[in-house]
Design goal:
The structure is a homodimer of 221-residue chains.
Chain A: H1 4-13, H2 22-31, E1 34-37, E2 42-44, E3 52-66, E4 72-78, H3 85-93, E5 100-113, H4 114-123, H5 125-151, H6 154-164, H7 173-180, H8 184-196, E6 200-203, E7 206-209, H9 212-219
Antiparallel strand pairs in A: 1-5, 2-5, 3-4, 3-5, 6-7
Helix pairs in contact in A: 4-5, 6-9, 7-8
Chain A binds a DNA duplex (30 and 30 nucleotides) through residues 71, 153-155, 172-174, 182-186, 188-189, 191-192, 202, 204-205.
Chain lengths: 221, 221
Amino acid sequence: MLSDDIRARILLLYPMLGELPTAELDGLLKQASVMHIPSGTVLFDERQICQGFPLLLSGNLRVIKSSSQGRELQLYRVMPGESCILTSSCLLGDTRYQARGIVDEAVEMVFLPASVFHNMLAKYDAFRHYVFQLFTGRLTDMMELVTAVAFQKLDQRLAALLAAKTSPIHTTHQAIADELGSAREMISRLLKGFSEQGWVTLGREQIVVTNLAALKKFAAL
Amino acid sequence: MLSDDIRARILLLYPMLGELPTAELDGLLKQASVMHIPSGTVLFDERQICQGFPLLLSGNLRVIKSSSQGRELQLYRVMPGESCILTSSCLLGDTRYQARGIVDEAVEMVFLPASVFHNMLAKYDAFRHYVFQLFTGRLTDMMELVTAVAFQKLDQRLAALLAAKTSPIHTTHQAIADELGSAREMISRLLKGFSEQGWVTLGREQIVVTNLAALKKFAAL
DNA sequence: TTTGCTGTGTGATGTTTGTCACAGACTTCA
DNA sequence: TGAAGTCTGTGACAAACATCACACAGCAAA
């Protein structure tokens, strides 16, 4: 059973659940429990079978593909209020995961069992709409990612990544390389170039964007 | 109004429509009309607004992204019995197209207006299920495409492409390059290599696969 | 047959990216 | 303070791919 506090937070992040009849929502939340998952945990992996539908309350997770040579590429990131579309995909298509989900910042989440998920999908327009929105959003993301990987140079992609994050970025060059599917040395070199242009200031595990406009302009070339 | 012949073909390709009440299906098909679209037509383009939901009866179309430098990359291909998921995405998310759809082999299709699409989605499990299946399938495709572009070498991707098509492949090197997001010369060179390995025999606008197993093995490395 | 178009073969060259090797800087913890 | 671990900088080199330039072959229309 979930506390009223948790219930309120769920409704805040997932407003479409508020459109369910109260009794239904109560029943639903009765079956669920909040899970706390530490950073670094592998939530799911390729070829695994999917168990249920997660509602993320805090933290976030990275969904990645990794190559046989040990490199990796981030497909997308799941934030609170979102849900892992890959999970929906597995549940709906009754297939297995095709990627790996790793907890980045420690996660609090509620897990809806697959049966509940299917039931809600059939019964509630609001929930169905939410899931469709998730799908369309991710599909768009993936299409942009494909074109970025296929057509853009690494420096542009890096600039776009830096421009998208909030400015004092605390991360390592290796983490950025993993996000972009590249190698650490490349990121170091390119960042040095950016800092020589005066676009960023570099420190250990820190990148301060000093010319956001220039970065964006460069990324959009 | 559609002929009985067309009606039969629609039901054959889209069996989930058979689960609608007959009256409903009649009403639906009354509003629709078969369109014939010649090869090469741009069915939709980036930033365009989406009008309705296509049911493909014959032919096929390529959905592509093109780069500012004039190169292009095929995201996926829509075959009869399928529908353009991008269209669904636009309809559901009320967004615009993010890619270009070009008729490859001349297309016969029936177009469901957006209102009908939404209505059916809310009312019929079978239709909803169909659309979800489309989404999950495409999402999987896109994820595979991303990883292929990011991690696989061009020769492997080419081998996979050749292995996936039925053997006397009638196409130009340029068309293959466009499908893989590469340059014509690269394809010519790699194909020459394959032919020296005895995996294919080359002719003008023709590639005959002579060692499918070897191609597949190479693609899976 | 000639002309022209399209498709293909091929070398030379440059850019981009990845890989390897190693040095130095900073942090943490004993 | 020292030692170990992590993060970053950097040069040298190789691989993959794109681009340019041009030759030539096959096909079709005039």
